[in-house]
Amino acid sequence: MTAARPRNVLYFQSGGVTAVINATAGGVIDAARSLAQAGAPIGTVLAARNGLSGVLKEELIDTASLSDEAVLRLRQLPGGAFGASRRLLPPYDECPDQWERVAAVLRAHDIGHVLVNGGNGSMETARLFVELGQRYGLDITAVGLPKTVDNDLLDTDVSPGFGSAAKYLATSMREASLDLAAMSGGARATKVFILEVMGRHAGWMALSTALAQDGPDAAPHLILCPEVPFDEERVVAAVSATIARVGYCAITVAEGLAGPDGKPLAVERDAATYGHEQLGGVGPWLADRVQTRLGVKCHCAVADYLQRSARHLASRVDLEQAWAVGATGVEWSLAGRSGVMVAIRRLADAPYRWDLVPAALDGLADRERKVPPDFLSADGLHASPLARAYLAPLIAGEAYPPYGDDGLPDYRWQCPSNLAPRLSPYSL
Amino acid sequence: MTAARPRNVLYFQSGGVTAVINATAGGVIDAARSLAQAGAPIGTVLAARNGLSGVLKEELIDTASLSDEAVLRLRQLPGGAFGASRRLLPPYDECPDQWERVAAVLRAHDIGHVLVNGGNGSMETARLFVELGQRYGLDITAVGLPKTVDNDLLDTDVSPGFGSAAKYLATSMREASLDLAAMSGGARATKVFILEVMGRHAGWMALSTALAQDGPDAAPHLILCPEVPFDEERVVAAVSATIARVGYCAITVAEGLAGPDGKPLAVERDAATYGHEQLGGVGPWLADRVQTRLGVKCHCAVADYLQRSARHLASRVDLEQAWAVGATGVEWSLAGRSGVMVAIRRLADAPYRWDLVPAALDGLADRERKVPPDFLSADGLHASPLARAYLAPLIAGEAYPPYGDDGLPDYRWQCPSNLAPRLSPYSL
């Protein structure tokens, strides 16, 4: 039996990053090393700088230069260690020269395995790599590694990154609501707190703050998801009733909250104000509406990047899944599995049990996982018990990063330099 | 020798709350119990519900009903356990009936010690309690316990609450900047991240994010304090230069940033947009200016209540100081010290050493501690080495709260009911 020739692995981070996407990178590199040491035909992991942009520009980082300790440190590093990009591979007909270039880069670096770490659009890019391999006669496998704080990927129980964002947001809501409760009873009282979270089309992150509730009248009192058209009269009435009953009202609003016409409210408002589209802003907009309608003082926080980079408050379950997805992607790729995403399958809610199963990459791009109606309360303004049962295990367990003498999380990590290019430059 | 008659302690939380103000309450209650057990003439600690409002309304909570464990749990509870209020005691001439009422409440509950836990205005209220005692012939001492995330109290090295807010903000800036770095290199790149922090008149919290820097070009790249009038041309030029040099630019902006005319920018803008004053909003405003001027994509987070309630990321030094200030306030009050604030004195920067000393309450209300010019870099857009030396020890050490099975900090705490009133009702 002739030993198969070791082939290299191409890994890249695609789309917005998360608090644990680097754990997936760590899982990929660690598994590839272990397999190589065990004699498997696998070479080095080349990470593209800035996602697909780095593939096209042949900006590749040989992770072989990373010490084992540096690989392990990827577990505790938020952001995207190698840089990410929103660039996706277009279909061949739209841009044949990009396909040509990618094929050349794969050949030049003897890539046998392509691992794309991203969300919906990135899974389609992973799928196109399968096509690309066939078109150019390259012997490659392509595997998708799920990642998105939005949790809008289908065919997986959850996407790594979401659990940590959820843990951060639920904690923030619980903490801020204690502040609100303290400030709501005295003079010049604040009566409403609004937390604006990410989620353009899906309310998963907004919904996750329901986990902050530890009693019937605990915060959040209202959760406004993009799946439920905003009805100002109903929301104002609900806020007013909550203030009357509880003394204050805490609200989570998803950035993509839309009116009955389907248009996002924040964009509408900002287009009117500034003459151009500006994302974000639904939180302050809602605060202004509530303040104007009810005459109560409102506070508003906008979590923005904080919610997807808060590694200091990562979910241990999420971190473990992120690592496992990377490691398993390498194993499957080496076993010749291609055109699949490493999906998380839920075996039980409590205690949470899960394993990893392949999901076809086909068509993931066009199907967005929205919050289903039975995950919402009857009035559409909160989470149902079904949603809580789904969400609860995803934020379980702590996984603190080490702290330095400076009193801050120690995120030192040195990204190696790019490999010397083997091809002529390519401009994007 | 006749044993002195035990007198009760009145404690209240005044102004905005912090992540560690309840630790001060815990220190007060714990010290009073220990002293009483040792035979000192001290009774129970009565906490007013919702600050001074609760004193006037005779809404008092007898903390004797709290178990020792419940007192210790105050160390780990954000928000204000007994409720806070922005209500301050007016001078006698402005409102003699309020003085009359307070005196009646103090008499009815045999109060011998008044401990006011708050900021500048609250220290003046503490001082007025001394006057009130004299005017009504009450044998009371009044002691101020410093508390403010703004850190604008004079005569103390730092105010409890600030260090934890600073730790949270510096961590958030470090984490978000890793996200920004990852997103700045690819397609549809984000080039600027703005973190809006609290601080109407003083830039302490904004400045504290300088601690996130762990290298010469590390975030934050610009810090905009209320002490430095906003000069759009200079700031836009600095942002542009930073993007050219680093690839991206992270900015901290204090909510109270003002233009050359001294008017807060956020208020100006909101007054124009909405026809009424709306606080907050300088972050999104700045994002819009940068985006318009430089044509780069900006992200903006607004920390709001999150920065002062993030007990999950408290500074251990801050927590210890908060507790010590409460405990020492009781000891001093029992020793007959009155009209003083329990101030923190710095003995050394590194390693940080401190003790507690009395500071006169007189005139604290009118003097706000701003960021001094030598704490700013030469261009006024960053922290100086002097500022770093001052700030660094204040965020040292971790003090995680316990986490429950739900994956969230366990902040359960049951506030006892109000004592039955002994006086007729009083309406505010």
The count of β-strands of chain A is 12
Rough outline of chain A? elongated
Overall radius of gyration of chain A: 23 Å
CATH hierarchy class name of the largest domain in chain A:
Alpha Beta
Using CB atoms under 8 Å apart, which protein chain pair has the greatest interface? A-B, 85 and 85 residues
Tally of individual helices of chain A: 13
User: In whole angstroms, how far apart are the ends of chain A?
Assistant: 44 Å
Strand fraction of chain A equals 15-25%
| CATH architectural arrangement of the largest domain in chain A | 3-Layer(aba) Sandwich
- What sequence of helices (H) and strands (E) makes up the elements of chain A? EHEHEHEHEHEHEHEHEHHEHHEEH
Largest sheet of chain A: 8 strands, mixed
Structural class of chain A: alpha/beta
Q: What's the mean pLDDT score of chain A?
A: 94
How many domains of chain A? The number is 2
Q: What oligomeric state is this? A: homodimer
Q: How helix-rich are the residues of chain A, as a percent range?
A: 25-40%
Poorly predicted runs of chain A are: 268-280
By CATH, the topology of the largest domain in chain A is Rossmann fold
Site (Important for catalytic activity) (chains A, B): 147
Subunit structure (chains A, B): Homodimer.
InterPro entries (chains A, B): ATP_PFK, PFKA, Phosphofructokinase_dom, PKF_sf, PPi-PFK
Domain Phosphofructokinase (chains A, B): 9-311
